[in-house]
Amino acid sequence: MSKLWGGRFEKETDRAVEIFTASIGVDERLWQVDIVGSIAHVRMLGQQGIISLPESQEIIRGLKSVQEDIASDLAAGKVTFRAEAEDIHSEVERLLTEKIGPVAGKLHTARSRNDQVATDSRLYLRDQVAAVQKDILVLQNWLITTAEKHTETVLPGLTHMQHAQPVSLAHHLMAYFWMFQRDAERFTDSLKRINVLPLGSAALAGTSFPLDREAVARDLGFASVSENSLDAVSDRDFVVEFLSGASLMMMHLSRMAEELILWSTPEFGFVRLDDSVTTGSSIMPQKKNPDVAELIRGKVGRVYGALMGALTLLKALPLAYNRDLQEDKTFLFEGLDTVHSSLKLMTLMLSSAYFDTERMSGALKGDFSNATDLADDLVVHGMTFRQAHEVTGRIVRFCIEANVGIEDLSLAELQQFSPLFTDSILAKVKPVAVMQARTSAGGTGTKAVLEQIAKARKVVKAVVTLA
Ligand code: ARG
Known about the structure:
Oligomer: single chain
CATH class of the largest domain: Mainly Alpha
Distance between the termini: 41 Å
CATH architecture of the largest domain: Up-down Bundle
Order of helices and strands: HHHHHHEEHEHEHHEHHEHHHHHHH
Strand content: under 5%
Low-confidence stretches: none
Mean pLDDT: 96
CATH topology of the largest domain: Fumarase C, Chain A, domain 2
Number of strands: 6
Radius of gyration: 30 Å
Bound molecules: arginine
């Protein structure tokens, strides 16, 4: 078919220009929302008497039938869209024209591809955000359920990558739960700004036809209509906002991936990843590598890159629509695809992971991560914390020289450093007791963690009802 805009041109477009300007390879995935948006537009055109009702009904029927054709072609693995098409909007109109003839030409009344593509992107992203939130929720559910099983499992909590104080595995896992919770909430919040209808802005200035934009918004489930047509066709804030939320989310995933990589080294040995989610080496027969975790860590670069790309694209762009904006979808889809696959693979990898709880508690033996509790005990018996810190430091130094842990000392040995120690200290320095003692709100003690988990369960429910 000739172009949507052939009339004023005397010469054919250079093939290289066609290839350079085409976006069908990227925006073809918008086919469904493009049709849905067109149906709402043409229904309104009919209701407003801008085109006749029978014409509007015929076009709607045609669009629905194009929709079915594309769906069944895709299901059968048949190529539907022509490689030489300019973009998905012209391609859908071509398919519609093939189906119903010249009346298809009325579809684009009072509309431009400028407000059309902005509408399509928002419709698409709205669904995708809900899908990302579901992916997050699956991961969060795994975190909660696994945390519930490990409220008594202790491992070294680290600061500066040095053993600091014991924490429970539940507490460690729940730390990630809250990161992903903030990510999910950020996405929910962004829906407010995504879910605004640009259609009706036409090319840039609005239109002289008596549109009912509110009706289209209701039909498509948009919460409001855009207030300024120039803004509506050139705004891609929602793309940047999504990619920025996605970048934060990927950053959280990368921290988790990094810890899994670290934990699966022989030096740590805290986790064993399943054969089904690890890979081997072409030369070293013994290898079992955490490639999935490494790739999640690596793919963060794509999403940061997409965010930078989108910001750069928009910088200093004059009003209103400019073709530069076509590039936004490359970034948006790259971000979306990476987020989906990374979340799914992280959950898959975790679901089959084996946590070696013996290795975790074993790592606490003689590691002095109970030193704070020794000092705290002296404080309870009346010593200032500074003094207690000094005394405990001397005990640690003694232990290092004697090659023993604090928990190996007898009461008599401890009392040589301070007469304030009593019998009860021996139980207090055991790793599980050290962890249990941290009952402050948000702390690692089992009681506090169980409260945390109960809150998490509530919060997760609240997100589901929103989505
Ligand atoms: N493929 C274009 C895009 O994604 C659609 C809008 C084209 N508009 C135009 N005036 N050339 O931005």
